[in-house]
């Protein structure tokens, strides 16, 4: 591994999932659902395989999928994107993020991230040979908010981009409009682009609304909006994601993407197009089910003695294990699968500059069937 990637050698998800498998633990570490997406989507994939859609799709993705993405985005956000030049299908959101950074950020350009952040952001900034500047979230009145002072301090005339993520992994926070407005104002002031990771766009709870920064004044022309079928349609293993934005920015991502994967899997793209057209009710219903799961796991964790921050969205809840006597959350997470048969991930891989403020926290995923969360609850009881 080259030195600039050495700090990112193995992801925490690979590490914890391997421990979970080895110890037959319930994996509340890596976030993936344990039920399938809509049956009609699976059938569409099988049909596409049988009907011979087994060669490369067009470079930017299956045409029908790009049209479906543009139509669905227009209905949910009002943004109007041309399916040919302003929509690009990628191998998961991961490739969209990497393509955006590698394709649009030059050597020594600066990229702002907000700690804690999804781990791939730091790794792709390193791949691009760019400089990462961190702002941070802070906990205020029981919810995570943007620390505006740190955001302002992270921007400079060399800032090319900020990576924004809401609903937010790992905290479960949903950034309110005021926070997004602060980010947008700095993007306009410094002529920076926003790379907006919205993979959990449909998973917000308690009536809280997801807002895309692309919809704020002056932002449609400087935002790449990224999403993924994985989280929307319970098919994380299909790796069908996409990015939308102004043609000149999407072109930059496309250039990089051509040499990362060239294209993704044709039959799966056809099936996701089918689901975006015909399964909007299924997508909407995912939210209420996930909110119930959140409440189920929160009750368990609170019963065991964790301090929690209520998740406003995503698959994840932030838990503070210090009331249980835990002094090293990262080490504790690595022991947990063997000790009690449950896996969780620490916050440490998601922080750097502000590590001291976050390293005591852990993240549990609740995107699991009720009976699985029940069993996890029984195992977690042994911590009391
Ligand atoms: N961004 C965030 C915030 C995520 O949680 C994930 C994991 N689903 C990704 C990006 C990567 O998504 P994908 O699996 O579609 O590559
Ligand atoms: N996005 C999921 C998570 O945060 C899975 C990530 C991964 O395995 N790379 O848990």
CATH architecture of the largest domain: 3-Layer(aba) Sandwich
Order of helix and strand elements from N to C terminus: HEHHEHEHEEHEHEEHEHHHEEHEEHEH
In DSSP terms (H or I, runs of 4 or more residues), the helix count works out at 14
- Structural class estimated from helices and strands: alpha/beta
DSSP, total strands: 14
Termini, distance in Å? Answer: 42 Å
Content of β-strand:
15-25%
Proportion in helices: 40-55%
The name of the CATH topology of the largest domain is: Aspartate Aminotransferase, domain 2
Spans of at least 5 consecutive residues whose pLDDT stays below 50 are: none
User: Based on CA inertia axes, which overall geometry fits?
Assistant: globular
Q: Provide the domain count.
A: 2
At the fourth CATH level, what is the homologous superfamily of the largest domain? Type I PLP-dependent aspartate aminotransferase-like (Major domain)
Gyration radius (Cα, Å) is 20 Å
CATH class of the largest domain: Alpha Beta
Ligands (ions, cofactors included): 4'-deoxy-4'-aminopyridoxal-5'-phosphate, glutamine
Largest sheet: 8 strands, mixed
Average of per-residue pLDDT values: 97
Protein name: Pyridoxal phosphate-dependent aminotransferase
EC number: 2.6.1.-
InterPro entries: Aminotransferase_I/II_large, Kynurenine-oxoglutarate_AT, PyrdxlP-dep_Trfase, PyrdxlP-dep_Trfase_major, PyrdxlP-dep_Trfase_small
Keywords: Aminotransferase, Pyridoxal phosphate, Transferase
